[in-house]
Design goal:
It contains eleven helices and no strands. Helix 9 runs parallel beside helix 10 and helix 10 runs antiparallel to helix 11.
């Protein structure tokens, strides 16, 4: 005897669709992953922190902050007049921390975008075509991987200079091999699945299969790697500025601010602690966003 479903009743299939799930035993759909992320406090808080820094980077010139001029007495401690105190030149530390988000969120993210695009493209090509193409790419990546990162960065900075476009290019070159290796491994895992075999039997060419079939299925991995490389790129940018290989005075760059004021760490801790907390907040938030995306994508 066949049971009838009352009009307006919510079936299991309807409930599954509303929750954004393809099938009870399949992974969440894109909509389901978004809803799952929004239910995670660590993701929401981290995303809000990153959004605040983006707004600060774009909007600090509009609110009248002056990170370059003298605002008060030298090395004045935090007060109602200067919430983060002043540095060794009397500049407002709060204004410099807010303005420092500009360079931190310019070089790192753009370098990460370059690394993600190049790494994903090379990884997809190497994983799909395999053979001599895969061998050539992997051997080149192995050579780059064994080089000490700091020495590699110093060499690249020496070759391309310390301008903003050069730093963006350096960051992109440094992170490309790691992303390419991971995307290649993911592509190799996808190559044995039925949808790739079906596309080949239908006569689709390699580039079409890579773009239409493989790319959507490795996209979650690409997003995770892009987020992780973003955190590392921001840290690298701050490290280069700290070493004098990145932003130059009087830039309010966080790494440069830590380097310039580190001699005052005992007598004027605020000149170092607040820029360091800014760097830490961005890196930790980015990692938490990446971890949450990875967990809901599995």
């Amino acid at each position: 005897m066949t049971a009838t479903v009352p009009a307006g009743a919510v079936t299991a299939e309807t409930l599954i669709e509303q929750l954004g799930v393809d099938h009870p035993h399949r992974r969440l759909t894109a909509r389901g992953r978004t809803l799952a992320l929004l239910r995670r406090p660590t993701f929401v808080i981290s995303a809000i922190i990153l959004l605040c820094w983006v707004i600060a980077a774009a909007g600090w010139p509009l609110v009248g902050l002056d990170p370059y001029g003298k605002a008060g007495a030298l090395l004045s401690p935090p007060s109602l007049e200067h919430l983060f105190g002043t540095d060794y030149l009397g500049r407002d530390v709060l204004a410099r921390v807010v303005a420092g988000a500009d360079s931190a969120l310019l070089v790192g993210p753009l370098g990460s975008v370059i690394a993600t695009v190049l790494g994903a493209a090379l990884g997809l090509v190497a994983g799909y075509y395999r053979g001599i193409t895969d061998t050539l790419f992997m051997r080149a990546f192995d050579v780059l991987a064994v080089l000490p990162p700091l020495i590699f960065i110093i060499v690249l900075v020496g070759a391309f200079g310390v301008s903003t476009p050069a730093l963006i290019l350096v960051v992109g070159i440094v992170f490309t091999p790691g992303i390419a290796r991971i995307i290649r491994a993911t592509t190799l895992a996808e190559m044995g699945k039925n949808y790739v075999t079906s596309a080949r039997l239908q006569g689709e060419r390699g580039p079409v299969i890579i773009v239409r079939e493989l790319l959507p299925n490795v996209l979650p991995t690409i997003i995770i790697q892009a987020t992780l490389s973003l955190a590392a790129a921001i840290f690298m940018t701050a490290s280069l500025s700290f070493l004098g290989l990145g932003s130059q005075p009087p830039s309010p760059d966080w790494g440069l601010a830590i380097s310039d004021n580190r001699v005052y760490i005992q007598s004027a801790w605020w000149t170092v602690v607040f820029p360091a907390l800014a760097v830490a907040s961005v890196i930790v938030s980015t990692h938490l966003v990446a971890d949450n995306i990875k967990e809901v994508s599995e």
